[in-house]
């Protein structure tokens, strides 16, 4: 089984004064999905310091250096499950359709951020996951699990 830590919308230092300590959440993860709006390169450096594979995309609020260093979207496959990663745009209503429209083909799972609202659901046979934000009063992150061709997630409120 593969366990992936998923974080988004950390917004350091524009909305929070310290980078959240997530070392306990990273320990048993095989990889990290980081979905943008870190706002500073320091956050990406922090995530990379755990020596895990980090799949990161930039968000709309990220500094120019991050936007130059990271892509807007990534696609990958883990244990035969196809993933599409992007930050997202617009309001919460219709976010799933907007995320899907960023990609040229259909994926098993779409993982995104932007709305600061956690999402962990299937629509038909497609998995949609948003870990929420680490920069709000109800801060959250998530895990995605992949085993065989099965994929599911958990949201953790901190």
Question: Can you offer a commentary on this structure?
Answer:
This protein has 158 residues and is an alpha/beta fold. It has one domain (2-157): Purple Acid Phosphatase, chain A, domain 2 (4-Layer Sandwich). The protein has four helices and ten strands, in the order βαβαβαββαβββββ. The chain has helices spanning 23-26, 41-48, 64-69, 95-101; strands spanning 2-7, 31-34, 53-56, 73-78, 81-86, 109-111, 119-123, 126-130, 140-147, 150-157. It has a five-stranded mixed beta sheet, covered by helices on one side. The two termini are 25 Å apart.
Mind sketching the topology for me?
Elements: E1 2-7, H1 23-26, E2 31-34, H2 41-48, E3 53-56, H3 64-69, E4 73-78, E5 81-86, H4 95-101, E6 109-111, E7 119-123, E8 126-130, E9 140-147, E10 150-157
Parallel strand pairs: 1-2, 2-3, 5-6, 6-8
Antiparallel strand pairs: 1-9, 4-5, 7-8, 9-10
Strand content: 25-35%
State the shape.
globular
Query: What is the name of the CATH superfamily?
Result: Metallo-dependent phosphatases
Number of domains: 1
Oligomer: single chain
- Taking all residues together, what is the mean pLDDT? 96
Count of β-strands: 10
Order of helices and strands: EHEHEHEEHEEEEE
Q: What is the count of DSSP helices, taking H or I runs of 4+ residues?
A: 4
């Amino acid at each position: 089984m593969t366990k992936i830590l998923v974080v988004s919308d950390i917004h350091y230092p524009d909305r929070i004064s310290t980078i959240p300590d997530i070392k306990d959440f990273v320990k048993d993860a095989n990889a990290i999905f980081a979905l943008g709006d870190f706002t500073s390169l320091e956050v990406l450096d922090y995530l990379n310091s755990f020596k895990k594979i980090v799949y990161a995309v930039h968000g709309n609020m990220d500094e120019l250096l991050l936007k130059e260093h990271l892509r807007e979207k990534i696609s990958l496959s883990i244990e035969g499950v196809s993933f599409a990663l992007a930050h997202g745009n617009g309001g919460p209503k219709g976010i799933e359709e907007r995320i899907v429209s960023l990609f040229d083909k259909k994926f098993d799972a779409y993982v995104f951020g932007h709305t600061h609202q956690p999402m962990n659901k299937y629509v038909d046979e497609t998995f949609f996951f948003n870990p929420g934000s680490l920069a709000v009063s109800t801060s959250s992150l998530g895990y995605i699990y992949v085993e065989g061709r099965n994929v599911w997630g958990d949201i953790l409120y901190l």
